[in-house]
């Protein structure tokens, strides 16, 4: 499956995490993104990958926010680690969510899994939950894992564990 991985703000995909990701996907796309220079990152990525068959999107922090929106537009499964939904330290223009013919929000049709670190002092998980709940309809496939053993940074073991769970669900 062609998988798009989006790193967080002022970050990059480490070699260790790349190795873990490549256990689960043989077609990994992991662009280096400068979120501070491009306030239209979501639109930029929508345009850049519009002719590619991205099947899954995974992101962390600012990359989790971006993955959240891309997955909605592309209607593909998403795994978001500590997504920066409630607040960001850099400006990002958020596109309007796709709408259905009745002019209501187009429901998410694919699986969304959100991992929240209980001890995250960068993005408070309890500020993220209301946004997730207001964005989702009851019949949409959403899984939220609030981890007591997690802060903002994602240890390799947790990254691997959550990827394994996610890929088992979307096979």
Walk me through the topology.
Layout: E1 2-6, H1 15-24, E2 27-29, H2 41-48, E3 56-60, H3 62-74, E4 78-81, E5 112-117, H4 125-135, E6 142-147, H5 156-170
Helix pairs in contact: 1-5, 2-3
Report on the structure:
- This protein is an alpha/beta fold.
- The chain has one domain (2-170): 3-Layer(aba) Sandwich (Rossmann fold), CATH 3.40.50.1820.
- It has helices at residues 15-24, 41-48, 62-74, 125-135, 156-170; strands at residues 2-6, 27-29, 56-60, 78-81, 112-117, 142-147.
- The termini are close together.
- The mean pLDDT is 90.
Structural class: alpha/beta
The rough form would be described as globular
Secondary structure: number of strands: 6
Rg, rounded, reads 15 Å
Strand and helix order = EHEHEHEEHEH
CATH topology: Rossmann fold
What share of residues are in beta strands? 15-25%
Euclidean distance between termini CA atoms:
9 Å
Which CATH class is shown? Alpha Beta
Q: Low-confidence spans: pLDDT under 50, at least 5 residues?
A: none
**Average residue pLDDT:** 90
CATH architecture: 3-Layer(aba) Sandwich
Describe the largest sheet.
6 strands, parallel
Q: Write out the CATH superfamily name.
A: Alpha/Beta hydrolase fold, catalytic domain
What order do the strands of the largest sheet run in, or round the barrel if closed? 2-1-3-4-5-6
Helix proportion of residues, in percent? 25-40%
What brief labels describe this structure?
single chain, 171 residues, alpha/beta, Rossmann fold, globular
């Amino acid at each position: 499956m062609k998988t798009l991985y989006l790193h967080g703000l002022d970050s990059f995909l480490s070699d260790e995490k790349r190795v873990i990701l490549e256990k689960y996907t043989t077609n990994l796309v992991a662009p280096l993104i400068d979120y501070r220079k491009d306030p239209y990152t979501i639109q930029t990525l929508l345009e850049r990958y519009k002719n590619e068959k991205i099947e899954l999107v995974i992101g962390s922090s600012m990359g989790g926010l971006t993955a959240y929106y891309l997955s909605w537009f592309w209607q593909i499964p998403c795994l978001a680690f500590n997504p920066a939904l409630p607040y960001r330290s850099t400006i990002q223009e958020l596109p309007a969510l796709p709408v259905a013919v009745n002019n209501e929000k187009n429901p998410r049709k694919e699986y969304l899994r959100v991992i929240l670190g209980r001890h995250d002092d960068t993005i408070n998980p309890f500020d993220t939950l209301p946004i997730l709940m207001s964005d989702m309809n009851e019949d949409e496939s959403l899984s939220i894992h609030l981890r007591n053993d997690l802060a903002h940074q994602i240890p390799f073991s947790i990254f691997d564990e959550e990827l394994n769970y996610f890929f088992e669900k979307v096979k």
